[in-house]
Amino acid sequence: MDLKEGGAHAVVRVPSERSRRDPRLDVLRGLALIMIFIDHVPENLYSFYTIRMIGFSDAAEAFVLISGISAGLAYSHRFAGAMMSTARAIWRRALTIYGAHVLSTVLALAMTLPAVFALDLFEFGAVNGVDWAWRQPFATAIGIFTLSYQVSYFNILPLYVVLFAAVPGLLWLGRKSVAPMLVVSAAIWLAGRWSGLKMPAHPGDWAWYFNPFCWILLFAIGLAVGMTARRGRALVPFSPVLYAAAVAFVAYSAWWRLTGHYEFPWPAGLTPAVIADTSKETLGLPRIAHILALAYIVIYLPGFRRFFETPVFHPVNIMGRASLVTFVTGSLIAFALQIFRTVYPTGLLEDTLLLAAGLVVQYCAARYALQRAGRLVSPDQAGESEERRALENLVITPPRKANR
């Protein structure tokens, strides 16, 4: 997969002074966050028109893949020259994500528990795992800080903590070639699926919803894309045959989803579970193939970068750049909306207004976070100092005309 629009001749370079910032990762990440927010308010009309309704994967896969690409772009070139200092920077990022998860979980409980007892929402509390807070408060408190207790819809950040903690090891494996990194990640994915290897939960008797032993493969693929792009190459160069195959697979998966035809075109006994399984917890192969096919189509779509540079996408760009703030804010708002809609059933107009207000709050929070960090510049500009602080710098040089 090449992250350079128009294909094989554009080159990724490290920015020097003032460089144009490729908006695609930021906007796509922002769109993924918007879809996650909408999907986290179940049964609203708009949730039936997000990516999850047109194929095997959903916005979570898109977000993990983009995060891997961003990490590869931001850290791989630094890791080669300063291994330990870069590893410490990555682990600080993992610690920041950990802090965001703990804070968001505590706020979610503080918001939910009074509503549960005041409005008799004990079923809502039980369904979303909030009931452990009053059934076993001490064990729940320990579970929050050990990442073993996860409220529903607040369970993706622990996955990111593990994935970012593993980035230095993955970069070390891929320092000369991304092949060893991908092979090891695929082996971990297979072990996670076939051995039942899971991260335990406490005080409940379940396991993490997002199994990091399985999700590491998709993250590593994104990391490989970013690392290869940093080296001025494409992990998967453009091929008309491969592009047509990606389009055909995405079309098939849309038909599979929209028609409810959840059987694969092979006899059941001849379809290995690793191919047929579409589990999100253990990240079935169809989900990986679907998001990679979508990414391949999008990256090589002519005019795609210019389209995302239009002013209409600037708010989405800002939300994507401050992804952690956007996600935490959106998760809390979505959970509050779940409580509100449980007590007061809503229709299309109310859902439209509530979701729009939630998105405005997320945008304002993201803009404020970037402003405080000194990163609120024009979406098409980014200096070298910003590249040092962010995960999402992809700088493109225009292709040179070949000598004839």
UniProtKB/TrEMBL annotation:
This is OpgC domain-containing protein. InterPro entries: UCP028704_OpgC. Keywords: Membrane, Transmembrane, Transmembrane helix. PANTHER family: BLL4819 PROTEIN. The chain crosses the membrane at residues 54-75, 95-118, 138-166, 178-196, 208-229, 241-258, 288-308, 320-340, 352-370. Pfam families: OpgC_C. It comes from Martelella lutilitoris. The keyword NADP does not apply.
